[in-house]
Design a protein that fits this description.
The chain is 81% helix and 0% strand. It contains 16 helices and no strands. Helix 2 runs antiparallel to helix 3.
Amino acid sequence: MNEKQLYNEALKREKSGKLDDAIALYKKSLQQNPGFRPALMNLGGVYGKLRRPADSIPYYEAALKLGVDEAVHFNLGSEYYQSKNYETASAHLIACLKINPRFLRAHILLAYVYEARSLPEKAEVYFRNALKLQPGSRIAVLGLLLNLSERAKYSEALGICDQFLKQAPGDETVLGLRAGLLMETGDYQTSTEELQRLSKESPGYASFGDHVQKARQSSDEESRVFFEGVRNRIQDRSKTLRQKIEERKRARAAGKKLDTAELKDDAKDMMDLSLMYLFSGESEKAMQFLVQAKKLKDRSTGDS
């Protein structure tokens, strides 16, 4: 068989899920013609599916030398992101968008790369770019909500929720996040009512955690990578907040009486943690921290 025949057979194996066979056939195709770009691209893709960026990147880089297009830059951006080489990932995703400014997934992934580089303002720009291209993009909405909430831009985040819910009024995850954002703005009553209504009236509640699990199984590499990254950020944020709350608990157990400012600070930490649990899909824990936050808020008001 010549390189094209080997390539076509490899493609069949890949589509049927026989990735090891596909890899072997793609490599045989390249043995016959080292400059056969489709085989280089597909080998990079198969190793990408296997989450082996160290193997994937050389094939994509070889394909890039043979020809430049949006796909090779996007794929390299994805693989360098997986490798935590965020600056190189940014460069490739920007190059992708120069070729095709309407490449939705490139905007979303570049936003998340900027999050990883601790550049949330730039991340916000690309999340918003994605929503201009596709107002109903759920990944872009969730990413922007997390971005804004972590920067305490709760009113803006509520606006994003309300805008999205006009198109998808039954999206229970975004409804739950909206309730958490209301809590952050101090509207405890409405927040509690909405969370209770969701838990009682929505037995099929689709938690954010469920979406993370689905994303991990998705054939859409960009979506899976994005959601896993969000989950990791949530876990880091939750750990930091939990440590602070535990320190305050130990101080109270040792007989220290917290002043009004400390009580308000604790209440705010618990509200933040409650919102993080909403993002992670753990609505019961979110409610627990919301109740504790409200108690502390009431105590601080009574003490003042």
